[in-house]
Amino acid sequence: MRIGLIGTGNVATILGRKITAAGHEVVQVYGRSAIHAQQLAAELQAAYTTDMDHLDPHADLYIIAVADAAIASVAASLPLQDKLVVHTAGSVSKEVLKVASTRYGIFYPLQSLRKEMEQLPDIPLLIDANTPDDLALLRDLALSLSTQVGVASDEQRLKLHVAAVMVSNFTNHLYTLAERYCQAEGADFSLLHPLIVQVAERLQYMSPQDAQTGPAIRYDTPTIEKHMALLEQHGEMKELYAWFTKSIQKQAASGEL
Amino acid sequence: MRIGLIGTGNVATILGRKITAAGHEVVQVYGRSAIHAQQLAAELQAAYTTDMDHLDPHADLYIIAVADAAIASVAASLPLQDKLVVHTAGSVSKEVLKVASTRYGIFYPLQSLRKEMEQLPDIPLLIDANTPDDLALLRDLALSLSTQVGVASDEQRLKLHVAAVMVSNFTNHLYTLAERYCQAEGADFSLLHPLIVQVAERLQYMSPQDAQTGPAIRYDTPTIEKHMALLEQHGEMKELYAWFTKSIQKQAASGEL
């Protein structure tokens, strides 16, 4: 497929790399910043532009990978008529693309993507479109990039996005808080890496509820009290410690939330 | 080394497997339950007993891997005199072992261990002892089981244990809450597995603070509001969403907590 890529951020960059690695062609990169557009275009061996009026009209698909809040205004300035256009956001309706074209849909990567990644990760792709033909076309593209492809409505995608924020952004913030605590207390955070990876990887063969370990699930009150005392000078961590301990024990006691 | 293993739970089982896999000998397993002691002893090709008075007196090292709250009472009933004895707990002082022997220390696996594990994970080991000679002896044993070995005082170990609880037990509970949310809303939690693994693995080459993505760090208020509205029926998740969003933005704004 010949693809026009609108955006130069983390999602545009990683999707662009996946797309070219799978043998498709990115014909043009659009970006507001000439430097960023030129840089990504050079990497993907594509043309670039900073002017919407100079968008290459001959692509098969236009992917809008810009900040959520900018999607509607970018769509409004796109002169696509009946070309297929998608956006890549978890929490924005596909209907905002109606103004750009009669053919529109979704190409949502369920991953936390950073330009700096050394290797391209596995990326589950959730797709949607306003016609069955375009859904089939997007499915073919998605399957050429990923082994995990699903169709998800606006509402389903929004729900998965909420869950994704919980298990990636919030989890990562726990890592950040723990790292700062270790730095403040002279402990070596990198000793925790094997533990962190193991807890994530065992989800492949064990539900998280069955995998829970630690002082809270053991109702080990002396240890919990020692830990809370140690966190006296770390207000946010102390709040979290109390909250999670209570929630883990509530879950264990009831079997449901 | 010839080792006496006291306990039959998750830590005793996984350490026993690591120890025999490294070519050492578990001479005897002690457990209160004959079934559990016999089962683990059979797996490790060791003898077993349920009677402290029948503890094999000829081991080089005795490892107490029982519930934190039981360590002191187990130590008090051990007739070891001048044999080396260690426990495996993050948050219990090594001094509780004084009653059992003149030679005592720590052998703390910084991992979340479950008997059901199909593969033995990498296990960072934190050690301590009341004499330099025994510290050297424990270091040799630890280095035969793990590439990550550190010496940690009671206080340092307690601090790392708190951090470990944050990045493993609390993280795992986030996974549990997200899985239950997906089940309640008809979404496929397994689509999130690649995301979860990627967020954990990238710590090898990126600090969590630099790796943060998502609506909170982007100050993407429309998305945050959509997510909060969706969580109206999920009280605990809504609380967490608000807490983490605020904490992530506070961290981003100040560069410190």
Automatic annotation (TrEMBL), chains A, B:
Segments forming domain DUF2520: 123-247
Transmembrane segments: none
Domain Pyrroline-5-carboxylate reductase catalytic N-terminal: 2-88
Name the UniProt record assigns to this protein: DUF2520 domain-containing protein
